[in-house]
Amino acid sequence: MAELIVYGIVLGSIISLGAIGLTLVYGIIRFANFAHGDLMSAGAYIALFITSVALPWTGLPHTTFGPFSFGWEMVIAFPVSMLIVGGVAIGLDQILYQKLRNKNSNAVIMAMSSLGASFIIRMIILILWGSDFFFYRPGVLRPAIEFPLGIKIRPDQILILFIVFLLITGLHLFLKMTKMGKAMRATADNMELAKVSGIDTEKIIIWTWCIGGALAAAGGILYGIDVQLHPAMGWNFLIPLFAATILGTIGNMYGALIGGLIIGISQQVSTAFIMPTYKPAVAFVIMILILLFRPKGLFSGGKE
């Protein structure tokens, strides 16, 4: 059980990255982006292209860092993929969502448009890579480190937790300490008041999409490092992402972090009682219960 909880924290930290990006977008634009999960897939596959095609094409050999299953290729691919997917998210907004917002389209039309965008992203992945499963470094395995209570955790998983900590800490400092971060928080509180105060809300929206897309890409890459890549991975993450966002109160970044950890731990612990195949249903059950008994989330006393 202790080992399952640790694995749940690893999974939950990945879910938290996606949920934070999702809740940031909703907090400012009031828009449930159903394409967010597939942005995670896009980030994972862009990193796969960089590590397995683009960089090897230069003739440089593959490397690994100590006990980890990857090397300098991933160090390059990780930030590049985050930037590219951030750009893709901005492009989707400029080409599609912004036009619908300008026409005062209702929430259903916006949601359906994002659902269509998610199908497009997934089909592009299927066309380019097919439906097979991929690993960043197939055949490269690293022994797990044994801790007290019989807990075994791979070095990659320890690094995943460290990277998530760095990204979330960086985002926290950005929102609290920088002028742009403070403007984003003001826009999330009241967009009309932010406009009157002279804040360029369109610029804020662009930054929001970029950060949300970048965090989604990071989550997708980390999941690929921990498990494997497949075209439906982001779609399978969609319910856990929304469950974490709702659980932690929509629009609350720190609530999304806690919600993601709760969902991840719940899913992994559930495998002690049910078949792993049914693990995704746990997030769906939690989401339904929260909507029934606490529809505004666990942290509804704070920012919504």
Q: Would you mind describing this structure in some detail?
A:
A two-stranded antiparallel sheet has the order 1-2. The chain is globular. 45% of the residues are buried. It contains 11 helices and 2 strands. Helix 1 (2-29) packs antiparallel against helix 8, helix 5 crosses helix 6 (179-189) and helix 10 (253-270) packs across helix 11. It has 304 residues and is mainly α. It has helices at residues 2-29, 36-54, 72-102, 107-129, 155-177, 179-189, 191-196, 201-226, 233-247, 253-270, 279-293; strands spanning 145-147, 151-153. It has one domain (2-293): ABC transporter involved in vitamin B12 uptake, BtuC.
In short:
The chain has 304 residues and is mostly helical.
- CATH architecture label: Orthogonal Bundle
Low-confidence stretches at least 5 residues in length (pLDDT < 50)?
A: none
> Over all CA atoms, what is the radius of gyration?
19 Å
What is the CATH C-level name? Mainly Alpha
Order of helices and strands: HHHHEEHHHHHHH
Please give the share of residues in helix. Answer: over 70%
**What is the CATH topology assignment?**
ABC transporter involved in vitamin B12 uptake, BtuC
**Largest β-sheet summary:** 2 strands, antiparallel
Q: Into how many domains do the coordinates divide?
A: 1
Number of helices: 11
Percentage of residues in strands: under 5%
Question: How would you sum up the global shape?
Answer: globular
